[in-house]
Each structure stands twice: as structure tokens, then as C-alpha cells.
Amino acid sequence: RAYRAEGVIIHPDYDNGATIANDIAMIVLAEDIEFTAGVGLIKIPETSDAGLLDEGQTVTVAGWGGIETGGSASSLQKMEYLFSNRVWCKRYWYNRRMDITDGMICTDRVSLTGERYAHIWSGDSGSALFSKNSDGTFTQLALVSWSSSLEQISAPDVHTNVFYYREWIRENMDLLESTYLQKSRAFYDTYQDLEFNDLRHYLYRRTNLYSLSSYLVIEADVTLIDIAINHFVMIYDGADIEEDKMIAMLTRNEELRNIISSSNEGLTIVVQTNDRGALGGRVQVRYRANLPPSGESSPVSLRCPNGFWPCVDKFYCIR
User: Fold this and answer.
1) Residues 258 and 293 sit within 8 Å (Cβ to Cβ)
2) Which residues fall within 8 angstroms of residue 192, CB to CB, at 6 or more apart?
3) What pLDDT band is residue 319 in, cutting at 50, 70 and 90?
4) Which of 245, 233, 255 is nearest to 302 (CA)?
5) Cα distances (angstroms) measured from residue 159 to each of 41, 67, 186, 250
6) pLDDT tens digits for 128-138?
7) Rounded CA gap, 169 and 146, in Å?
8) CA–CA separation, 68 vs 49, rounded Å?
9) In 3D, which of 252, 263, 245 has the Cα closest to residue 222?
10) What is the DSSP letter of 176?
11) Which of 72, 106, 64 is nearest to 89 (CA)?
12) Which of 36, 65, 80, 179 is the most buried (most CB within 10 A)?
């Protein structure tokens, strides 16, 4: 089955240019995964697993990328190969003007018949390289990053070393529990302040402002202070993040006052930085619970600066 994603955390030093360094991200799901006999957890490597990445160690890669007969695989494919000599890999790609950084690890090509070799292919990026443990569990050692994808070339494949980034992964998993997804209760007729600072480290951050009283709605003022280019603040009516519930999207140094929710589910504030995690900015939100305005009440009309839509999907999507 498919699971809806509501955000992504990309490594702040990801280079989508010449080096493809720090090619790693974490997806924030909007719902829990249903585990079955065919769907389970995979472990993040521990310090004691360092030897699993040594030269000559066997690793399995599985993916849905291109296959020899053309097109993408209709069923999950896998291949076993060996971690390669790092010095040889660096030399091979250096001679072709590509740099193997500390966060990368290489695997040897797999020889087929004649002058042919098996490689990762287009569509395999992000696939797992893993080993099976003695207790039947699995440990993810790397992520497919890039290669030649040509069966006539004996080039080593290059992957993101998950062992190298294990602390970054754990740090962001901890932040997800305390920072990225928040709920803040609003009190009746008393303004409270909420600030998002140091936006460099956050690609996605969500807070729901709500009232426990069924007859109170949420009022809020949102101000963007020195926010960086390509940072956005999206405001939704209620607790769900759906396109038809978006009230406004702000960028740069804009502000929006007297935003009123349509129910006690309140407002949801989403802060999204650009994919490089550029430094800059502070978002200030003043909010309170209050009686609905007399007569017809509805949120303020949608505001979206031309050219600044981050996506067009029904749900908040991944850039």
C-alpha cells in the first residue's frame, strides 16, 4: 500500500551539483506503517557494525530500477556484491572528475558473461544496501546514490554511507518527537507567542494551534522576520494539511493578521525551508482562543504569491 508523506528533512549540506555529497534525506509520514510478514523495520548501524563496511564484505542491494530488457522492474530486484577498495574507487572516479567524499562508500562491479557487468540502474537511487544479521533482522548500511549504469563499463557503484550519517539520522528522529510536529493549546482571550528560530536546521516544521473547548475558535497573527529566500510559511484551517484547507502562504518579510479558524481544531502552521537549509529568519505567531465572530465566519481568503507554490498536489508534498 502507499503511505502519505507530509514532509521531508534533507541534509543541510546536500550538494545537487558536481559532487552529489550528503545525498541523504528523511521522509516524514502522515500515518503509521502497518507492519506485516513482508513489511518490517530495518536497523540503523551501530558503532559495532563498522566492520560490515570493510573492503570485501558482502552486501545486498534491492530496488525497482531499470532492468536489462528495458523499463523499470515490475517486481523487486536484488543483487549481492562486495564493498570495494576505497583508494581504488577514489582514483577511478577522480580520473573522471568525480570526488568520493567521506560520506560515500563504493561497491565492486559484478561480472556477467563476456565484457558485461551488473550495476545499479536509473530508478535505483535511494534503494537500500543491507546485511542480514544472525537473529534474522537486517541492518541498512548504505543508500544507492550514483554510478555509470552502463553494463559495458567496469566502474564501481557509489552509495551514501548510512553508518557515516547514523548520528544525523538519530538526531533528527529525536527532533521529530519534540520539535517538527507540535500541538499547542490556545487559552481563551489571552495572546500567546510562538517563535520558530534558527531555521537552517529545519526543512519541515509543523504546529497545530487548537482549543479544547468545542465553542472556541483560534485567532492568530503571523509575522515573518528576516526569513530567507525560498522559505515558506503555510497556514491551514484545521489540523489536516490539504490544499483546499490552505488559508495562506507567506514568504520573505510578510505578515498576516486576524486569521480565524472555522472550528476548535484551530490552525496548522507549516514552516518549510529550501532544500539547502539556507540560514536565516524567524517566524513569530501570536494566537489565542476566542468566541467565533458574529454572523458568517470563515478563514481569510487564500493568499499565494505568484511563482512561489511549492507543489500542486492535494496534500502537502515533498519538494
Assistant:
1) no
2) 184, 186, 286, 287, 288
3) very low
4) 245
5) 21, 19, 46, 37
6) 999 999 999 99
7) 21
8) 34
9) 252
10) I
11) 106
12) 65
Per-residue pLDDT band at 279 (split at 50, 70, 90): low
Are 29 and 47 in contact by the 8 Å Cβ rule? The answer is no
Among residues 222, 317, 309, 205, the alpha carbon closest in space to that of 261 is found at 222
One-letter amino acid of 49 = D
Residue type at 178? S
- 297 neighbors 217 (Cβ within 8 angstroms): yes
- The C-alpha cell of 173 is what? 528522529
Q: Which of 260, 284, 282 is nearest to 273 (CA)?
A: 282
Q: 249-260, pLDDT tens digit by residue?
A: 888 788 888 999
Average pLDDT over residues 93-105: 92
* DSSP-assigned states of every residue in 139-155: EEEEEEEE----TT--P
Give the residue from 168, 220, 122 showing the smallest Cα distance to 22: 168
* For range 41-59, the mean pLDDT: 95
C-alpha cell at 196: 520558530
